[in-house]
Specification:
Number of domains: 1
Radius of gyration: 21 Å
Number of helices: 18
Shape: globular
Distance between the termini: 30 Å
Structural class: mainly alpha
Largest sheet: none
Number of strands: 0
Strand content: under 5%
Order of helices and strands: HHHHHHHHHHHHHHHHHH
Length: about 425
């Protein structure tokens, strides 16, 4: 219990430092040291051995996926494919349903494997156009994008190539399609409740007399996409299909199946995007360099003391560590590196399908990670020219409160054997 208190205090320190504008690169180790001290660990060994060993191990295991994912996103951005997907979907759904259009468009791009940060930049100009036409307050845009980027497509829907759905495979011997029923239920909860909340907020804002407010110095980007929608969609489809087909049929060693599958799937997506847009080769090397550089920033306690159901313990540990690090994939990786084998052993003892562990861990990683100090939240607010005071309420509801509710539901359903 003392360890859990330490995690909460460490989280409070991290949120305070992030709110003050300090870099998470040094704020996260400081918060980790608070956890270590309260947990009774020696400070220097906890930093140089426990913290750094876990960090280095995580980067070693997942840097290839970070790098290729970031490169894939930059290629999709450079070729105009990301813009084509977002704009076409938004236009088809319509300005009258601007909230739904942004959430669904963002979610599809994330499910297709595009980097979350690339999605933000691709979607934001489209969101501005739709919200301008619908005369909705601009401060709701971050909540809409966050709902599509940080929830159902990232952690819940089975088959997603995002790291949150890949990391558990390494520790539980599962696949990206594991726990499909739980994943669909959690994803639908996040999608439906998120859209309902955002539309409720939009109505309240309009009733209070709020209207669309043009950002200072904005240059409209309402031109037609240069890439055909279906051509733009092909690399995303290939990534998802290759990931799942390779996992089942390639015959990789079980311990490396998820790693090899995602690497090959992303490489196929990158090469196909390049081939389909071969006339733009002049910018590909720059995009690859920028993607590789971005992956560096993206990549960067053993005892839980909880004697409850493995699913309850797993969900709590994952979401608390994701909150403490401000990173869903980071918290998930650290937790499963330390406790994954313990959870798998407990599941085997009671005859639980490891796919349930996989889906609960993935869904749980997308809750407290989106607290105010989260790098993705801070970046999104900067891109949308907003701040926590004006926009975080809706972001917090769609990316923290609702995902936590979805996590509770899948824990309950998983406990009774639904997967």
């Amino acid at each position: 219990m003392i360890g859990v208190i330490g995690i909460f205090l460490g989280l409070a320190v991290l949120i305070f430092l992030a709110y003050k504008g300090y870099s998470v690169l040094w704020a996260a180790p400081v918060a980790a040291m608070v956890v270590a001290v309260i947990g009774g660990l020696n400070l220097l060994p906890a930093f140089t051995d426990t913290y750094m060993t876990g960090l280095v191990g995580f980067v070693k295991s997942w840097f290839p996926m970070f790098m290729l994912g970031a490169i894939f996103g930059k290629i999709m951005e450079l070729t105009g494919s990301a813009k084509a997907i977002a704009k076409t979907l938004s236009e088809k759904i319509g300005a009258k349903r601007a909230v739904t259009a942004i959430v669904v468009s963002t979610g599809l791009m994330v499910y297709g494997g595009i980097s979350l940060f690339v999605v933000v930049f691709a979607i934001y100009p489209i969101a501005l156009s739709l919200f301008r036409e619908a005369d909705l307050p601009r401060r709701l845009i971050p909540g809409c994008i966050a709902c599509g980027a940080f929830t159902f497509a990232m952690t819940a829907f089975p088959g997603s190539p995002q790291l949150n759905n890949i990391i558990p495979s390494k520790y539980f011997g599962t696949t990206a399609m594991s726990g499909p029923i739980l994943g669909l239920i959690a994803g639908i909860i996040m999608l439906v409740l998120g859209i309902l909340w955002l539309n409720h907020s939009a109505r309240k804002m309009v009733a209070a007399g709020e209207h669309f407010d043009e950002p200072a110095g904005h240059v409209s980007d309402d031109g037609k996409p240069e890439v055909n929608f279906f051509v733009a969609l092909l690399p995303l489809i290939v990534v998802v299909l290759m990931l799942n087909l390779l996992t089942y049929f390639a015959g990789f060693e079980a311990s490396m199946a998820s790693t090899y599958s995602i690497i090959i799937a992303l490489l196929c997506g990158i090469f196909l995007a390049i081939i389909l847009n071969v006339t733009k080769t002049h910018g590909f090397l720059k995009a690859i360099s920028e993607g590789a550089q971005a992956s560096v920033s993206a990549s960067g306690d053993q005892e839980s003391g909880l004697k409850a159901s493995p699913l309850i313990s797993e969900a709590l540990a994952v979401t608390l560590l994701a909150g403490a690090t401000g990173s869903s994939s980071g918290g998930l990786g650290i937790c499963l590196e330390a406790l994954g084998q313990n959870y798998l052993d407990l599941a085997n003892q009671i005859g639980m399908n490891p796919g349930i562990l996989h889906r609960v861990a993935a869904v749980a990683s997308g809750g407290l990670d989106s607290l105010p100090h989260c790098g993705g939240i801070v970046t999104m607010l900067m891109v949308c020219e907003m701040d926590h005071k004006r926009s975080y309420k809706d972001m917090g509801m769609t990316t923290v409160v609702i995902p936590v509710i979805a996590t509770i539901v899948v824990v309950i359903l998983g406990t009774i054997g639904i997967c």
